Amino acid sequence: MNQSIPWGEWVAYIEPYYPNGERGRPSMGIEKMLRMYLLQCWFNLSDDGLEDAIYDSYAMRTFMGVNFFDEQVPDATTLLKFRHLLEKHNIGKVFFDAIVRALAERGHTMRGGSIVDATIINAPSSTKNEKKERDPEMHQTKKGNEWYFGMKCHVGVDAGSGYVHSLETTPANVHDIVVVSKLIREDDEVVYGDSGYIGIEKREEVLNSLHLSQKEYRINRRYTSVQRLPEGYIDWEKQIERRKSSVRSKVEHPFLIIKRYFGFAKTVYHGLAKNTHRLHTLFVSANLLMCARAGRSLRPA
To answer: Whole-model pTM?
Structure first.
């Protein structure tokens, strides 16, 4: 990540909103605070937990460029204020949009097709807190035979490369198909999705949109609706569904990175806005990670 992130560009996005240090104690460098914030996102640590981890981890100190002979690690309160500044100005989405543009400009995305999908991010359902209530912006939904409480993360993924290009969040009770029109790019010709998107071509927003109504929607059928043929016959329908699934499976890899590598299986803040900002930061990191693993770079030569 140290080699993949365009640090100068990202620092420039934050600079107009960052305190100049004329009042109060001298401010920490923007890049140092940005590196600290990214460590918090990648390792899913609290403000205090990250401060302690940096003191314990040589790798984290090296990544931040902290030299204990000359300076101290920024404290938890400084990180909290920096995170609030990023959330207030929605800098996470700025990072995300910039990397999506860079991937397209360098030819790393194939364009022409998108995969849409959504995943549930659980939220604490307990009312054992100060207000004795759940997060009002989160809701419950039933998936299979189980109930979940939290939010949904909806993404659009480039069908060729697997990079995430669109992101929307909603409470968990919002159906996947409601948000799909916001995840499709204008130049997409084909859209892949699971059986939760059946009937998308009949939606009012699709029928009333010239560019959405002309897309080809390759949506997986429900398993129970595919007729089984007797032994000895070639099941063409089943093979078609497998081909759709083989393309659609690319959307699962970014979710794996977000939930397993970065540990964002549960919400870390109250409300959709703060969690959405965290997701933008994590998905731009996931794109950079996949880009680096493919031997590509977005940094200037």
So the answer is: 0.92
